[in-house]
Amino acid sequence: MGDQIRKSTRHSEILGKFGEYAVCNWLSRSGFEVCVVNHTGLDIIAYSPKSKRRLGITVKSRTRTSGKESESVNVFSRKTGDRKKLNEACKSFACKPWLAIYVECGRIADMYLTSLAHYDSRYKSKKARAIDAWSMAKGSTEAYASDPSVARIHFEFADKKWPPLRKNRN
User: Fold this and answer.
1) What is the model's pLDDT at position 170?
2) What distance in Å separates the CA atoms of residue 62 and residue 16, rounded to the nearest whole number?
3) d(CA 1, CA 10)
4) Can you tell me whether residue 138 is helix, strand or coil?
5) Exposed/middle/buried for 41, CB within 10 Å: 0-12, 13-18, 19+?
6) Distance CA 51, CA 83 (A)
7) Is the peptide bond before 164 cis (omega within 30 degrees of 0)?
8) Which residues pair with 34 in a beta bridge?
């Protein structure tokens, strides 16, 4: 793999599904019952039998190339009504809206999970904007790391003997 990511023609679709299932795995390992749903504005419904909480999660997955690691992730577009779609879907399924963000670059990736209410109160721009974004600037990622209301998993990829079709590999 190396530090530079070479994307296939279907990379965006594959990355989106990977992000959804990475969140599902993380929540399942934490005792949640989870399912991927094919619903406008909503990717995952997760239920905690212990706390009786039901989360409606939208997942945003992005690949960043070298030099663009700190670019923000667009979360909601006012033009397409993404926020409204998530809120309406959550109302239909009696769950609270949450955000999951998966961003990979080179040999590392980070995944974040927080409630929409927490995002709005702490990280959403106070200025009216066409796009709500999740900042990946150094100061923001440091703030997420110290925020108990933002869950984070950090991934590091090691590509021992990968891909299998490199020269000198049988």
Assistant:
1) 52
2) 8
3) 17
4) helix
5) buried
6) 26
7) no
8) 46
**Rounded CA gap, 55 and 133, in Å?**
20
**Among 23, 112, 38, which residue's Cα sits nearest to residue 75?**
112
- What pLDDT, on the 0 to 100 scale, is given for residue 2? 45
What residues does 105 pair with on adjacent strands?
108
Q: Measure the CA–CA gap between 120 and 148, rounded to whole angstroms.
A: 15
The structure tokens listed for 158 are: 């090691």
**pLDDT tens over the chain, length 170 residues:** 346 777 888 988 999 999 999 999 999 999 999 999 989 999 999 999 999 999 999 999 999 888 888 899 999 998 999 999 999 999 999 999 999 999 998 889 999 999 999 999 999 988 888 899 999 999 999 999 999 999 999 999 887 777 776 565 55
Give the span between the Cα atoms of 125 and 128, in whole angstroms: 7
If one counts every other C-beta atom within 10 angstroms of the C-beta of residue 143, the result is 14
The correct answer on CATH 3.40.1350.10 for the domain covering 11-156 is yes
Any idea how long the chain is? 170
